[in-house]
Amino acid sequence: MLADDRRAFGALVEAYQPRLRRFFMNLTLGDEYLSDDLAQETFVKAYLQLRSFRGMARFGTWLYRIGYNVFYSYKRGQHSTAGLEAAPEHITAPVDGSDIAMDVKTAMAQLTEKERTVVTLFYIDDLPIKQIATITGMNQNTIRSHLHRAKEKMTKILT
Question: Quick check: pTM over 0.85?
Answer without folding.
Answer: no
